[in-house]
Amino acid sequence: MSTGAYIFDAVRTPRGRGRPDGALHELTPLALAAQVLGAIRDRNGLDTRLVDDVILGCVMPVGEQGSDIARIAALVAGYDVTTPGVHVNRFCASGLEACNMAAGKVASGEARFVVAGGVESMSRVPLAADGGAMMVDPSFAFDHCYAPQGIGADLIATLYGFDRQDVDAYAVESHRRAALAWAEGRFARSVVPVTDQAGVVLLDRDEAIRPQTSLETLAGLKPAFLAMGASGYDAAALRRYPQVSQINHVHHGGNSSGIVDGAAAVLIGSREAGEAIGLKPRARILGAASVGSEPTIMLTGPAVATRKVLDRLGMTVGDIDLFELNEAFASVVLRYLQVLNLDPAKVNVNGGAIAMGHPLGATGAMILGIALDELERTGKGTALVNLCVGAGMGTATVIERV
Amino acid sequence: MNNFSIDVDGQGVAVVRFDVRGKGMNVISDEVQREFDEVVETLRADPAIRGAVLVSGKASGFCAGADLAELVDSMARWSEARSQEELKAGVADAGSWSRRVRALETCGKPVAAVIAGMALGGGLELALACHYRVAVDDPTLRLAFPEAGVGLLPGAGGTQRLPRIMGVSATLPHLLDGKPIGLADALSSGVVHATAPAGELLEMARRWVLEHPGAVAPWDEKGFRVPGGGAQGSDGYRDFAPAMAARLADGGDRLPATGNILKCVYEGTQVPIDSGLRIEARYFFNTARSARSRAMVRTFFLSRQKLAKRPHRDDPAPLLERLRLAVARECKALAQEDVPETVLNRLCAQVAVRSEGAGETVANGSAADFDLAEAGSVEQRLLYAQVLAALQALDEGLVSDPLEADAIAVSAGFPAWTGGPVSFVEMEGMEAFVTRADDLAAWFGPRFQVSPSLRERVVAGQGFYG
To answer: N or C: which end of chain A has fewer CB within 10 A?
Structure first.
């Protein structure tokens, strides 16, 4: 018998700058993951023998993030030895994919509870550490016109008419919203401080927000992907998009998602499992979808994923009160607003990864929790959480407050 | 032997003289290949031989590469392969020179090559399979892989040994563009180990052979690493990957060898040399049997040789005028269908003859709304419009024959990977071409109608190139 999947709780670490001087650099990704797994257990009084799986997203699953960090983190967090763990990689949506897989396991009856989430220590296991075929194997990179995502972001801006002013203005707004959200304590329910080896708090708020960010401060930043494009990747993008005469490189560190460290965990289970131990669900997972779309531009999957999940649920964008779309790059969100004709006031209302950073494997679970908190704060009903994903994919989840 | 002689000197060094009978330069024919087996077997088995020096008997240089006229027959045969047996036999056939030079490299005795003048393609591959290479220090030296220019790839270890000598990214201009390896580069990377005036080369090579009885190729030594870190190392990500992307400019991926050369380098350098050579042979076979490759060999080698012997050549102007008119007319129609101007300009630059009036078409179609799936159709219409115009010009006698038509068109910017507009028809298959043209005529108008003479050719099964 199929049952629904519910979210009982969500926690996340604050995000530390992903550099050697970042606040979380001295902790292993294993420790980050174990702390959020411990926190979600402790604050729900959860008997981990009821947790039928731990699913963690991780996008660079090599080095100290390798060899199934989910199972190892569960054991280190003190979960019962009977609780298994699995690591998943759907690039930037890994943390949300983990939640969707958890929902599937719960809905099918395979699991009572699943703790899903993700972890990424970008300061310790850098981008591209996992190698792979995508960037360098000619059977894909050449035959399918691979270009790195920054080129795709700039291509979106070029193709759909967003200039430097547009993307910078979006970035300024992201910082403004994130700073306001922190000032009003809107993240208080989900953020758990990260402690060091001695138990001293290392970080209790997102480290990368710069409330003073303005169009003027951003104007000084040089385009980050100009040289990369000139090295050959613009040619790949233009091979696929003959309608573009040249790429306008508008993105830089200030209007792209920040490189940060962090982890998140979401407790997902069936209503019956919750009732059995006196836990009240906070939201129901109505549905989810992952999609593939054109891989060279890479980052236009979210609108496709949104339409797919809403169509299947018999809903329209008008039925959604709140949207979270990961701010991988400003143009990704601007295009999403444009193509779905959305009110910007409903999208990323508390800022996003441009201000607070994007710890790859964890972000999807983080923004799911942020959407849930915001639904509760405002008394609204439905939220759609969405990320653009490498190689042209997109992943979306719809939740409804209960 | 007709092509090799072996003289063993008093110290046991065999001087192998490569001197193809009846030709001005050494080329690698089937007969050369067969005799080379005998050479290698002699070096391996004769206990009196301590090592060998390979020299050319030609003033023109070391070796000019494959006998393309013979290769063309093999390519036609390989193109027919469908069954497992045929595919297997074709790959084995395609790798024959590769296996022979590998046998030389692993014969157990030191082998040195003396390079004066040109060492091209399969000839340079032979030299790279020798343990030591001395080259003449004068401007006649020419080390290059011209294969890609005729739609082929170096199939006897060129894509394997060159990146193992100079790193995966540094090889690309040489393998993909045929850029000659300059003497300074050759020396610093190890493509050539030493240089000397022509008169001293043989003695230098002899001395090296005597002093290195246990010589093996670097890639046969335990712990060998591709310099620069290889395709999955820093060289791969930092340089090879963007250089590969840059090759997509101007639709460079339409050339039949480019992608396969990249795959040989990427895949082949991550495995031991013998595996790399087998991988290369498979991609060589795939390339050589492709319609594009066969079209390019014909136009850029066979026809070019024939045309060079003609006392009189056609005036290119009448044909080119027809082609340009066809392009202009098609662009106008496409513009009226709201194909964006950038698309027309980009695709004309890639698949149309160059024109003074290029970029003059005014089109207002929106770039943001352009459906990517349409790009292939736009490209096809531009190509078919030109090809039909070329066939019409042939019918009217504006150009004397298919060789001239193809040569004139490709030299004016008609895409090289087709071999030219007439060659394009053969590449598509005559029946398929007519069927597609009929479709285009039904959808877009009578300008795509094929002539009765072409239909007659199809019925008679009579190709333009016989």
So the answer is: N
Common-topology check for domains B4-289 and B315-460: no
Q: What is the ipTM of this complex?
A: 0.95
Write out the two tokens for B458: 């199809």
Query: Is domain B315-460 given the CATH code 1.10.1040.50 in the classification?
Result: yes
User: What pLDDT, in 10s, does the model give residues B162-207?
Assistant: 999 999 999 999 999 999 999 999 999 999 999 999 999 999 999 9
State how far the Cα of A91 lies from the Cα of A390, in Å rounded to an integer: 6
Q: Which CATH number fits domain B4-289: 1.10.357.10, 3.90.226.10, 3.40.50.2300, 3.40.50.720?
A: 3.90.226.10
- Write down the pLDDT at residue B362: 79
How close B438 comes to chain A (CA, Å)? Answer: 27
Under an 8 A CB cutoff, do A239 and B253 touch? yes
Chain B interface includes A142 (CB < 8 A): yes
Helix (H, G, I), strand (E, B) or coil at A306: helix
Q: What is the rounded (10 degree) CA torsion for B169, B173, B178, B183? A: -90
Q: Is the pLDDT of residue B23 over 80?
A: yes
For chain B, the distance separating the N- and C-terminal CA atoms, rounded to the nearest angstrom, is 35
Taking contacts as CB-CB distances below 8 angstroms, the residues of chain A near B245 are: 141-142, 145-147, 231-233, 235-236
A388: annotated active-site residue: yes
Q: Around Cβ A109, how many Cβ atoms within 10 Å?
A: 11
Tell me the DSSP string of B363-399.
Answer: ----TTT--TTHHHHHHHHHHHHHHHHHHHHHHHTSS
Determine contact, residues A329/A255, Cβ cutoff 8 Å: yes
Q: Is A371 helix (H, G, I), strand (E, B) or coil?
A: helix
Q: What is the dihedral of CA A211, A217, A219, A225, to 10 degrees?
A: -70
- Residue B429: left if φ>0, alpha if ψ -120 to 50, beta else—which one? left
A175 is catalytic: no
Of A128, A138, A242, the CB nearest to B375: A242
For B164, the 3-state DSSP assignment is helix
How many Å separate Cα B23 from the centre of its chain?
22
- The three-class DSSP label of residue B272 is coil
Q: What sign results for the dihedral spanned by CA atoms B250, B253, B257, B259?
A: positive
CA distance A296 to A314: 31
C-beta contacts of B138-141 below 8 A and 24+ residues apart: B138/B197, B138/B198, B140/B61, B140/B116, B141/B115, B141/B116, B141/B117, B141/B183
| pLDDT value for B466 | 75
Q: What is the pLDDT of residues A3-54, one digit of tens each?
A: 699 999 999 999 999 999 999 999 999 999 999 999 999 999 999 999 999 9
Chain A residues inside the 8 Å CB shell of B259:
138, 142-143
Distance to chain B for A14, nearest Cα, Å: 32
Cα nearest neighbour of A148 on chain B? B242
What average pLDDT does this structure show over B73-89? 97
Rounded CA separation B255/B249 (Å): 12
B429: Cβ–Cβ under 8 A, 6 or more apart, which residues? none
**In terms of pLDDT, which residue wins out, B461 or A364?**
A364
DSSP-derived 3-state class of residue A81: coil
Min distance A229 CA to chain B CA atoms (Å): 9
- Cα A150 to its chain centre, rounded Å, is 17
Q: Does A163 touch chain B (CB under 8 A)?
A: no
3-state secondary structure of B189: helix
- Provide the token pair at B22: 């009846």
Do the Cβ atoms of A243 and B243 come within 8 Å? no
* Domain spans, chain B: 4-289, 315-460
Identity of the residue in A136, A138, A294 whose CB atom sits nearest the CB atom of B237 = A136
